[in-house]
Amino acid sequence: MGPGQIYNSNRVLLCSWLKRLHCDVVDAGILPDDLQQTRAALASLHDVDLILSTGGVSVGEADFLGHALREEGELTLWKLAIKPGKPLTFGHFRGVPVIGLPGNPASTLVTFALLARAYLLRRQGVIDVAPMQFPVPAGFVWARPGNRREYLRGRLEQGRAVVYRNQSSGVLRSAAWADGLIEVREGTTVAEGDWVSFIPLSEVLG
């Protein structure tokens, strides 16, 4: 890789997840941080049922997806009170639905698993799109109440939910290590032994 480059893990993962949902994938490649090229790429996908992208949806000077939707379509949703995954975008570009997922790998995983997947299933005619989840006792302590609903990457060990040590949204290893998402509602803490909601990744990505 050259200076300033990173591995494009999102591309591989999203293509795999979409094919598991029986979607025909048109890979539009990687775009530079440029409004004109973003607009041109969106326009070239006029005959698809959905445009799904990652990155370019936050508040930086080089995040252009929202600008393109505002100029030539509509921006219906921008930002959610969840962590990771706050800068999620939904709208339409010249009539085509667009879902813009965050670029950090863990954020991409959470927003696709919980939101984009549900949208795709509903478009396919599925009525019940809510992922299966069940209560398990916590084998960890979460002492930081937040103002967003958090989805921790974790797994089950000896009947308890444990979390990966680094919950940064840029750490893809947390997803490889985990076998589920642990929901921590906004404004709450978790003590060891408390009951938490566990969503198996096999349910939403399998």
Automatic annotation (TrEMBL):
Keywords on record: Magnesium, Metal-binding, Molybdenum, Molybdenum cofactor biosynthesis, Transferase
One GO CC annotation: cytosol
InterPro entries: MoaB/Mog-like_dom_sf, MoaB/Mog_dom, MoCF_biosynth_CS, MoeA-like, MoeA_C_domain_IV, MoeA_C_domain_IV_sf
Annotated EC: 2.10.1.1
PROSITE patterns, per database record: MOCF_BIOSYNTHESIS_2
Pathway given in the UniProt record: Cofactor biosynthesis; molybdopterin biosynthesis
Transmembrane portions of the chain: none
Cofactor: Mg(2+)
Record field: catalytic activity: adenylyl-molybdopterin + molybdate = Mo-molybdopterin + AMP + H(+)
Domain MoaB/Mog: 2-122
GO molecular function: metal ion binding; molybdopterin molybdotransferase activity
Taxonomic superkingdom: Bacteria
Biological processes per GO annotation: Mo-molybdopterin cofactor biosynthetic process
PANTHER family noted in UniProt: GEPHYRIN (PTHR10192:SF5), MOLYBDOPTERIN BIOSYNTHESIS PROTEIN (PTHR10192)
Family: Belongs to the MoeA family.
Reported function: Catalyzes the insertion of molybdate into adenylated molybdopterin with the concomitant release of AMP.
Protein name: Molybdopterin molybdenumtransferase
Organism annotation: Pseudomonas syringae pv. actinidiae ICMP 19096
